[in-house]
Amino acid sequence: MSTETSSQDAHEGEPEAVTLDQLRAAVNMRAAAYGHIFDVLTERFGSEEAVDLLGEATRRLGTDMGKHFASHGPDDTVGLCDAFLGGIPGREALFAPEVIERSDARMEIQFHRCPLKDFWVADGRSDADIERLCRAAGRIDGGLFERAGFVFKGRTWKPGQSGCCRLIVEPGADG
Known about the structure:
The longest helix is centred in the first third of the chain and has 26 residues, at about 20-45. The protein has one domain (about 20-170): Muramoyl-pentapeptide Carboxypeptidase, domain 2 (2-Layer Sandwich). By secondary structure, it is of the alpha+beta class. The chain is globular, with a radius of gyration of 19 Å. The protein has seven helices and four strands.
């Protein structure tokens, strides 16, 4: 009987390290899926209904994610900012967030990059489609922050603007 263990056994139970390239590939797959869903919905119902339907699906995903931030609601915007930014994998490389305001009154973050938008640009999508896809995908943030008990007032990218979305979060009604 051998006393040697395989490298797999030696690392059992440890989280597998994910490279930035693997993370980009996963986000690109998500962006491609959003794009295909948007295209199918647009063919069936028109672009604005496609934005509404895809947006509702991403909002629901955000609502699922928001429970992880509920301990900060409805008014710990400073703690929320730290927890939210701390939970973004590949934060600087993929999103380049700039904290505009981190106070008891508000959390405001400008994202200078977005891997979803970068994919859609590289995929050759029109500015109009990218703006629509950003509106739909950006509803994830509203679902997340509202589920956590906050008021979400963010804005998504529009043609002619640099960077990407701006998250603006304020204390909820009970805060």
